[in-house]
Amino acid sequence: MELSFSYPELKDLVAGRKVAVAVSGGADSLLSMVILKELGADVIAVHGCFLGSEKSALAVAGLELRCAEFGIDLHVLDFKAEFDKMVIEPFIKDYLKGDTPNPCAQCNPQIKFGVLYAAARNFGAELLGTGHYVRIVEHPEYGRMIARGADLGKDQSYFLSLVPREDVLNAIFPLGNHSKTETYSELEKRGLKIPLSSESQEICFVPDDDYRQFLIDRDVKLPGPGDVILSSGEKLGRHKGLWRYTHGQRKGLGIGWREPLYVIEKDLKRNLLILGTKEELGASGCIAEKVNFLVDFDKWPETVRIQTRYRQRSMSSKVKLDGDNLVFEFVEQHSMPTPGQIAAVYTEDGAVLGGGIIRKAL
Protein backbone atom coordinates (compact mmCIF):
# COMPACT_ATOMS: atom_id res chain seq x y z
CA MET A 1 0.00 0.00 0.00
CA GLU A 2 1.50 3.33 -1.03
CA LEU A 3 1.88 5.91 1.71
CA SER A 4 0.52 9.36 0.98
CA PHE A 5 2.54 10.97 3.77
CA SER A 6 6.25 10.34 3.78
CA TYR A 7 8.25 13.09 5.46
CA PRO A 8 8.88 15.08 2.24
CA GLU A 9 5.17 15.01 1.38
CA LEU A 10 4.25 15.77 4.98
CA LYS A 11 6.52 18.80 4.84
CA ASP A 12 4.74 20.05 1.72
CA LEU A 13 1.40 19.58 3.49
CA VAL A 14 2.18 21.36 6.76
CA ALA A 15 4.81 23.98 5.94
CA GLY A 16 3.45 27.42 6.82
CA ARG A 17 0.10 26.06 8.00
CA LYS A 18 -1.16 26.29 11.57
CA VAL A 19 -1.25 22.82 13.11
CA ALA A 20 -2.51 22.14 16.63
CA VAL A 21 -0.83 19.18 18.28
CA ALA A 22 -2.75 17.36 21.01
CA VAL A 23 -0.06 16.86 23.66
CA SER A 24 -0.58 14.60 26.66
CA GLY A 25 2.86 14.88 28.18
CA GLY A 26 3.94 11.49 26.86
CA ALA A 27 6.67 10.55 24.41
CA ASP A 28 4.49 10.07 21.31
CA SER A 29 2.74 13.43 21.21
CA LEU A 30 5.94 15.24 22.23
CA LEU A 31 7.86 13.83 19.28
CA SER A 32 4.95 14.54 16.92
CA MET A 33 4.97 18.17 18.03
CA VAL A 34 8.71 18.48 17.49
CA ILE A 35 8.66 16.80 14.07
CA LEU A 36 5.90 19.08 12.81
CA LYS A 37 7.79 22.13 14.07
CA GLU A 38 10.95 20.94 12.30
CA LEU A 39 8.97 20.44 9.08
CA GLY A 40 7.97 24.11 9.06
CA ALA A 41 4.44 23.99 10.46
CA ASP A 42 3.15 26.89 12.54
CA VAL A 43 2.63 24.68 15.59
CA ILE A 44 0.54 25.32 18.66
CA ALA A 45 0.22 22.77 21.46
CA VAL A 46 -3.12 21.92 23.03
CA HIS A 47 -3.33 19.97 26.29
CA GLY A 48 -6.67 18.86 27.68
CA CYS A 49 -7.05 18.45 31.45
CA PHE A 50 -9.57 15.67 31.95
CA LEU A 51 -9.08 14.53 35.53
CA GLY A 52 -7.38 17.27 37.56
CA SER A 53 -4.84 14.82 38.99
CA GLU A 54 -1.30 15.31 40.23
CA LYS A 55 -0.16 13.54 37.07
CA SER A 56 -1.91 16.16 34.94
CA ALA A 57 -0.17 18.99 36.81
CA LEU A 58 3.18 17.26 36.23
CA ALA A 59 2.41 16.95 32.52
CA VAL A 60 1.55 20.65 32.20
CA ALA A 61 4.73 21.73 34.01
CA GLY A 62 6.87 19.59 31.71
CA LEU A 63 5.04 20.68 28.57
CA GLU A 64 5.52 24.33 29.45
CA LEU A 65 9.29 23.78 29.48
CA ARG A 66 9.39 21.77 26.25
CA CYS A 67 7.14 24.21 24.37
CA ALA A 68 9.21 27.18 25.56
CA GLU A 69 12.34 25.52 24.14
CA PHE A 70 10.75 25.45 20.68
CA GLY A 71 8.86 28.73 20.84
CA ILE A 72 5.50 26.94 20.72
CA ASP A 73 2.39 28.38 22.37
CA LEU A 74 0.80 25.96 24.81
CA HIS A 75 -2.93 26.10 25.48
CA VAL A 76 -4.07 24.23 28.59
CA LEU A 77 -7.81 23.57 28.47
CA ASP A 78 -10.13 22.34 31.21
CA PHE A 79 -12.32 19.54 29.84
CA LYS A 80 -13.07 17.78 33.12
CA ALA A 81 -16.83 18.40 32.88
CA GLU A 82 -16.98 17.28 29.24
CA PHE A 83 -14.86 14.21 29.96
CA ASP A 84 -17.08 13.21 32.84
CA LYS A 85 -20.26 13.66 30.78
CA MET A 86 -19.06 12.18 27.48
CA VAL A 87 -16.73 9.39 28.65
CA ILE A 88 -17.09 8.48 32.33
CA GLU A 89 -20.89 8.60 32.64
CA PRO A 90 -21.48 6.45 29.51
CA PHE A 91 -18.80 4.04 30.81
CA ILE A 92 -20.79 3.60 34.04
CA LYS A 93 -24.12 3.24 32.23
CA ASP A 94 -22.70 0.60 29.91
CA TYR A 95 -21.49 -1.49 32.83
CA LEU A 96 -24.87 -1.24 34.51
CA LYS A 97 -26.59 -2.60 31.41
CA GLY A 98 -24.20 -5.55 31.25
CA ASP A 99 -21.75 -4.37 28.59
CA THR A 100 -17.97 -4.08 28.81
CA PRO A 101 -17.29 -0.62 27.37
CA ASN A 102 -14.16 0.70 25.72
CA PRO A 103 -13.84 4.29 27.00
CA CYS A 104 -10.68 5.07 24.99
CA ALA A 105 -12.61 4.51 21.78
CA GLN A 106 -15.29 6.94 22.96
CA CYS A 107 -12.75 9.51 24.12
CA ASN A 108 -11.22 9.85 20.66
CA PRO A 109 -14.36 10.97 18.74
CA GLN A 110 -15.96 12.84 21.65
CA ILE A 111 -12.99 14.52 23.29
CA LYS A 112 -9.71 14.47 21.33
CA PHE A 113 -11.24 14.82 17.87
CA GLY A 114 -14.33 16.50 19.32
CA VAL A 115 -14.18 19.29 21.89
CA LEU A 116 -10.37 19.54 21.84
CA TYR A 117 -10.21 19.76 18.05
CA ALA A 118 -13.02 22.34 18.08
CA ALA A 119 -11.01 24.45 20.54
CA ALA A 120 -7.93 24.11 18.33
CA ARG A 121 -9.88 25.40 15.33
CA ASN A 122 -10.91 28.41 17.44
CA PHE A 123 -7.20 29.14 17.83
CA GLY A 124 -6.88 29.19 14.04
CA ALA A 125 -5.55 25.68 13.51
CA GLU A 126 -6.31 24.01 10.18
CA LEU A 127 -5.06 20.54 11.09
CA LEU A 128 -4.71 18.42 14.23
CA GLY A 129 -1.51 16.52 14.91
CA THR A 130 -1.43 13.57 17.31
CA GLY A 131 0.97 10.88 18.48
CA HIS A 132 -1.17 7.96 17.33
CA TYR A 133 0.57 5.10 15.55
CA VAL A 134 -1.64 5.08 12.47
CA ARG A 135 -1.03 6.05 8.87
CA ILE A 136 -2.94 8.00 6.27
CA VAL A 137 -2.75 6.24 2.91
CA GLU A 138 -3.93 6.76 -0.61
CA HIS A 139 -5.74 3.50 -1.23
CA PRO A 140 -6.04 2.40 -4.88
CA GLU A 141 -9.76 1.56 -4.49
CA TYR A 142 -11.08 3.80 -1.70
CA GLY A 143 -8.97 6.95 -1.88
CA ARG A 144 -7.56 8.71 1.17
CA MET A 145 -8.13 6.81 4.41
CA ILE A 146 -6.48 5.75 7.65
CA ALA A 147 -4.63 2.47 7.97
CA ARG A 148 -2.69 0.45 10.49
CA GLY A 149 0.56 1.89 11.77
CA ALA A 150 3.79 0.32 10.56
CA ASP A 151 4.56 -0.82 14.12
CA LEU A 152 1.83 -3.44 14.49
CA GLY A 153 2.63 -3.82 18.18
CA LYS A 154 1.64 -0.18 18.76
CA ASP A 155 -0.95 0.23 15.97
CA GLN A 156 -3.87 2.33 17.28
CA SER A 157 -6.17 2.30 14.27
CA TYR A 158 -8.63 0.15 16.26
CA PHE A 159 -9.22 3.06 18.64
CA LEU A 160 -9.73 5.57 15.82
CA SER A 161 -12.32 3.56 13.89
CA LEU A 162 -15.17 5.53 15.52
CA VAL A 163 -13.78 8.99 14.69
CA PRO A 164 -15.82 10.69 11.92
CA ARG A 165 -14.18 10.61 8.50
CA GLU A 166 -13.83 14.38 8.09
CA ASP A 167 -12.11 14.74 11.46
CA VAL A 168 -9.70 11.84 11.17
CA LEU A 169 -8.65 12.81 7.64
CA ASN A 170 -7.87 16.34 8.82
CA ALA A 171 -5.39 14.88 11.27
CA ILE A 172 -1.65 14.40 10.92
CA PHE A 173 0.07 11.30 12.33
CA PRO A 174 3.85 11.82 12.11
CA LEU A 175 4.62 8.53 13.89
CA GLY A 176 2.51 6.28 11.69
CA ASN A 177 5.44 4.88 9.77
CA HIS A 178 7.72 4.50 12.78
CA SER A 179 8.14 2.24 15.79
CA LYS A 180 7.93 3.04 19.49
CA THR A 181 11.65 2.25 19.76
CA GLU A 182 12.39 4.87 17.11
CA THR A 183 10.28 7.40 19.02
CA TYR A 184 12.45 7.07 22.12
CA SER A 185 15.58 7.13 19.97
CA GLU A 186 14.53 10.36 18.22
CA LEU A 187 13.72 12.07 21.53
CA GLU A 188 17.06 10.98 22.98
CA LYS A 189 18.85 12.24 19.87
CA ARG A 190 17.31 15.67 20.45
CA GLY A 191 17.99 15.59 24.19
CA LEU A 192 14.31 15.98 25.03
CA LYS A 193 13.04 15.01 28.47
CA ILE A 194 9.55 13.46 28.45
CA PRO A 195 7.21 15.15 30.97
CA LEU A 196 5.45 11.85 31.72
CA SER A 197 7.98 9.09 31.22
CA SER A 198 5.67 6.18 32.11
CA GLU A 199 3.19 4.69 29.66
CA SER A 200 -0.44 5.61 30.33
CA GLN A 201 -2.56 2.93 31.98
CA GLU A 202 -5.30 1.11 30.11
CA ILE A 203 -8.15 3.32 31.37
CA CYS A 204 -6.79 6.68 32.46
CA PHE A 205 -9.55 7.48 34.97
CA VAL A 206 -9.64 4.06 36.66
CA PRO A 207 -6.90 3.71 39.32
CA ASP A 208 -4.89 0.50 38.93
CA ASP A 209 -7.30 -0.58 36.15
CA ASP A 210 -9.71 -1.77 38.88
CA TYR A 211 -13.06 -0.83 37.35
CA ARG A 212 -14.99 -2.64 40.08
CA GLN A 213 -13.50 -0.46 42.81
CA PHE A 214 -13.95 2.60 40.61
CA LEU A 215 -17.68 1.94 40.31
CA ILE A 216 -17.96 1.41 44.07
CA ASP A 217 -16.05 4.64 44.78
CA ARG A 218 -18.37 6.57 42.45
CA ASP A 219 -21.24 5.54 44.73
CA VAL A 220 -23.12 4.01 41.80
CA LYS A 221 -26.26 2.05 42.65
CA LEU A 222 -25.10 -1.38 41.56
CA PRO A 223 -27.21 -4.52 40.96
CA GLY A 224 -26.90 -7.20 43.62
CA PRO A 225 -26.18 -10.94 43.74
CA GLY A 226 -27.98 -13.64 41.76
CA ASP A 227 -27.67 -17.21 40.58
CA VAL A 228 -24.85 -18.70 38.55
CA ILE A 229 -25.99 -21.41 36.14
CA LEU A 230 -24.57 -23.58 33.40
CA SER A 231 -25.83 -23.06 29.86
CA SER A 232 -27.82 -26.26 30.42
CA GLY A 233 -29.67 -24.58 33.30
CA GLU A 234 -27.95 -26.37 36.17
CA LYS A 235 -27.41 -24.09 39.16
CA LEU A 236 -23.78 -23.76 40.29
CA GLY A 237 -23.82 -21.05 42.93
CA ARG A 238 -24.23 -17.31 43.42
CA HIS A 239 -22.61 -14.31 41.74
CA LYS A 240 -21.81 -10.96 43.40
CA GLY A 241 -23.49 -8.71 40.81
CA LEU A 242 -23.40 -9.04 37.02
CA TRP A 243 -21.46 -5.77 36.63
CA ARG A 244 -18.46 -7.54 38.19
CA TYR A 245 -18.12 -9.98 35.28
CA THR A 246 -17.30 -9.73 31.61
CA HIS A 247 -17.94 -12.04 28.64
CA GLY A 248 -15.23 -14.63 28.23
CA GLN A 249 -13.99 -14.23 31.82
CA ARG A 250 -12.46 -17.34 33.39
CA LYS A 251 -10.65 -16.24 36.56
CA GLY A 252 -12.35 -14.97 39.70
CA LEU A 253 -15.65 -16.78 39.15
CA GLY A 254 -15.51 -18.62 42.48
CA ILE A 255 -17.04 -21.75 40.96
CA GLY A 256 -15.47 -25.20 41.12
CA TRP A 257 -16.17 -27.54 38.19
CA ARG A 258 -14.66 -30.59 36.49
CA GLU A 259 -13.30 -28.37 33.68
CA PRO A 260 -12.64 -24.64 33.27
CA LEU A 261 -15.74 -22.49 32.90
CA TYR A 262 -16.16 -19.11 31.23
CA VAL A 263 -18.78 -16.38 31.22
CA ILE A 264 -20.81 -16.87 28.06
CA GLU A 265 -23.84 -14.71 28.85
CA LYS A 266 -25.28 -12.26 31.38
CA ASP A 267 -29.07 -12.37 31.65
CA LEU A 268 -29.98 -8.98 33.15
CA LYS A 269 -33.73 -9.63 33.26
CA ARG A 270 -33.33 -12.71 35.44
CA ASN A 271 -30.06 -11.54 37.04
CA LEU A 272 -28.32 -14.75 35.94
CA LEU A 273 -24.64 -15.31 35.24
CA ILE A 274 -24.41 -18.08 32.64
CA LEU A 275 -21.23 -20.13 32.35
CA GLY A 276 -20.05 -22.60 29.75
CA THR A 277 -17.01 -24.54 28.57
CA LYS A 278 -14.33 -23.27 26.22
CA GLU A 279 -16.11 -24.93 23.31
CA GLU A 280 -19.10 -22.67 23.98
CA LEU A 281 -17.04 -19.49 23.70
CA GLY A 282 -17.11 -19.48 19.93
CA ALA A 283 -19.45 -17.32 17.86
CA SER A 284 -20.68 -17.43 14.27
CA GLY A 285 -20.96 -13.64 13.99
CA CYS A 286 -22.02 -10.46 15.72
CA ILE A 287 -24.09 -7.31 15.33
CA ALA A 288 -22.55 -3.84 15.64
CA GLU A 289 -24.49 -0.61 16.17
CA LYS A 290 -23.64 3.13 16.22
CA VAL A 291 -21.64 2.56 13.06
CA ASN A 292 -19.05 5.05 11.83
CA PHE A 293 -18.35 4.73 8.09
CA LEU A 294 -14.87 5.82 7.00
CA VAL A 295 -15.68 4.50 3.53
CA ASP A 296 -19.25 4.43 2.17
CA PHE A 297 -20.71 0.98 2.77
CA ASP A 298 -21.69 0.43 -0.87
CA LYS A 299 -17.96 0.45 -1.69
CA TRP A 300 -17.04 -2.17 0.89
CA PRO A 301 -15.98 -5.63 -0.30
CA GLU A 302 -18.29 -8.49 0.58
CA THR A 303 -15.57 -10.06 2.73
CA VAL A 304 -13.75 -7.82 5.21
CA ARG A 305 -11.42 -8.20 8.17
CA ILE A 306 -13.00 -7.61 11.58
CA GLN A 307 -11.20 -6.97 14.86
CA THR A 308 -13.30 -7.18 18.02
CA ARG A 309 -10.56 -6.68 20.64
CA TYR A 310 -7.49 -4.44 20.69
CA ARG A 311 -4.97 -7.25 21.24
CA GLN A 312 -6.41 -9.52 18.57
CA ARG A 313 -5.58 -10.18 14.95
CA SER A 314 -8.32 -9.30 12.50
CA MET A 315 -10.29 -12.17 10.99
CA SER A 316 -12.22 -12.68 7.77
CA SER A 317 -15.95 -12.02 7.86
CA LYS A 318 -18.88 -11.52 5.55
CA VAL A 319 -20.76 -8.32 6.29
CA LYS A 320 -24.14 -6.81 5.41
CA LEU A 321 -26.00 -3.67 6.42
CA ASP A 322 -29.28 -4.21 8.27
CA GLY A 323 -30.91 -0.83 8.83
CA ASP A 324 -28.36 1.15 10.82
CA ASN A 325 -26.50 -1.94 12.05
CA LEU A 326 -23.72 -4.09 10.63
CA VAL A 327 -24.25 -7.85 10.71
CA PHE A 328 -21.08 -9.95 10.52
CA GLU A 329 -20.92 -13.61 9.58
CA PHE A 330 -17.48 -14.91 10.56
CA VAL A 331 -15.59 -16.85 7.93
CA GLU A 332 -12.88 -17.95 10.38
CA GLN A 333 -13.35 -19.46 13.83
CA HIS A 334 -13.82 -16.52 16.19
CA SER A 335 -14.04 -16.20 19.97
CA MET A 336 -17.23 -14.68 21.32
CA PRO A 337 -17.22 -10.87 20.85
CA THR A 338 -17.94 -8.82 23.95
CA PRO A 339 -20.92 -6.41 23.88
CA GLY A 340 -19.72 -2.83 24.40
CA GLN A 341 -16.37 -3.35 22.69
CA ILE A 342 -15.47 -2.02 19.24
CA ALA A 343 -15.82 -3.92 16.01
CA ALA A 344 -13.21 -2.30 13.76
CA VAL A 345 -13.44 -3.20 10.07
CA TYR A 346 -10.44 -3.40 7.75
CA THR A 347 -9.54 -4.19 4.19
CA GLU A 348 -7.21 -7.11 3.56
CA ASP A 349 -4.28 -4.69 3.43
CA GLY A 350 -5.04 -2.96 6.73
CA ALA A 351 -6.97 0.17 5.75
CA VAL A 352 -9.89 1.07 8.05
CA LEU A 353 -13.37 0.91 6.51
CA GLY A 354 -15.21 1.88 9.68
CA GLY A 355 -16.23 0.70 13.10
CA GLY A 356 -19.15 0.18 15.43
CA ILE A 357 -20.07 -0.91 18.96
CA ILE A 358 -20.74 -4.62 19.41
CA ARG A 359 -24.35 -5.13 20.51
CA LYS A 360 -24.42 -8.91 20.68
CA ALA A 361 -22.71 -12.06 19.48
CA LEU A 362 -24.48 -14.49 17.17
> What percent of the residues sit in helical stretches (DSSP H or I)?
25-40%
Q: What's the level 1 CATH class of the largest domain?
A: Alpha Beta
Percentage of residues in DSSP E strands: 25-35%
Task: Please write the string of helix (H) and strand (E) elements.
Answer: HEHEHEHHEEEHHEHHEEEEEEEEEE
CATH superfamily of the largest domain: HUPs
Spatial separation of the terminal alpha carbons: 33 Å
Q: Segments where pLDDT lies below 50 for 5+ residues?
A: 1-6
Multimeric organization: single chain
Largest sheet: 6 strands, antiparallel, barrel
- Count of discrete alpha- or pi-helical segments spanning 4 or more residues: 9
Structural class: alpha/beta
**Which architecture name of the largest domain does CATH use?**
3-Layer(aba) Sandwich
Q: Might you state the CATH topology name of the largest domain?
A: Rossmann fold
Number of DSSP strand runs: 17
Q: What does the overall shape look like?
A: globular
Mean pLDDT: 91
Strands across the major sheet, in which order?
12-15-14-13-16-17
- Taking all Cα atoms into account, the compactness measure Rg is 22 Å
As for the number of domains, it is 3
GO molecular function, one term: ATP binding
Disulfide bonds: 107-204
Pfam family, one: tRNA_Me_trans
Domain tRNA-specific 2-thiouridylase MnmA-like central: 225-276
